[in-house]
Amino acid sequence: MSLAQVLFYVMAFVVVGSALFVASTKNLVRSIFMFFITLFALAGLYVLALADFIAITQIVIYVGGILVLILFAFMLSGKETLNVLQQQKSKFISLSKLPAILLAVLFFVVMVNVITKIDAGNIGWIKQAISTNTEIKPNEEMINNIGINLMTRYLLPFEAISILLMMALVGAAHLSRKERGAV
């Protein structure tokens, strides 16, 4: 087994294990930090798949943006809400969770079926692209072109979106703040 395969299996185990921990734990703080680990390990899987741009995007958008928003939502949530979450029943399998368990098992069966039945070398559109020599081969110019476009042509839309997200964050902080006179 090569080093790349060992790294793939280790990162896949980290992704699946931390995602299961996120889904099964009742502690919101630990769940958020394990979600952080899940997203980083997923970015590592993208690097192993030679999808560097997707890995960087995963880190910048999900780890850098969305997870920070989740942390802010956690910090701004009231103590009463967190106490209610921690006082829920601690049974792992219960009748109320049966539809979710059935859906998860069904999704797992479909995913295993797709993985075992697919033959990536015999997919029609891939064969056609190879035979007509129209496949896109990765090179350094593609990544440089993406970087140049992001910092020139698409800079204004990214800045506008960042301002809108900042306004939403300030609005959420203002709405969650309690009035001094209210009980």
Give the helices and strands, then pairings.
Elements: H1 3-24, H2 28-48, H3 52-76, H4 79-86, H5 98-117, H6 124-131, H7 140-151, H8 155-176
Helix pairs in contact: 1-2, 2-3, 3-8
CATH names the topology of the largest domain as Four Helix Bundle (Hemerythrin (Met), subunit A)
What share of residues are in beta strands?
under 5%
Order of helices and strands: HHHHHHHH
What's the number of structural domains? 2
Number of helices: 8
Q: Biggest sheet: strands, sense, closure?
A: none
* C-alpha-based Rg, rounded: 22 Å
Low-confidence stretches are none
Mean pLDDT: 77
Notes on the structure:
- The chain has 183 residues and is mainly α.
- It folds into two domains: 1-100, NADH-ubiquinone/plastoquinone oxidoreductase chain 6, subunit NuoJ (Four Helix Bundle (Hemerythrin (Met), subunit A), Up-down Bundle), CATH 1.20.120.1200; 117-183, no CATH class.
- Helices cover 75% and strands 0% of the residues.
- The chain has helices at 3-24, 28-48, 52-76, 79-86, 98-117, 124-131, 140-151, 155-176.
- Helix 1 (3-24) packs antiparallel against helix 2.
- The longest helix is centred in the middle third of the chain and has 25 residues, at 52-76.
- The termini are far apart.
- The model has no long low-confidence stretch (mean pLDDT 77).
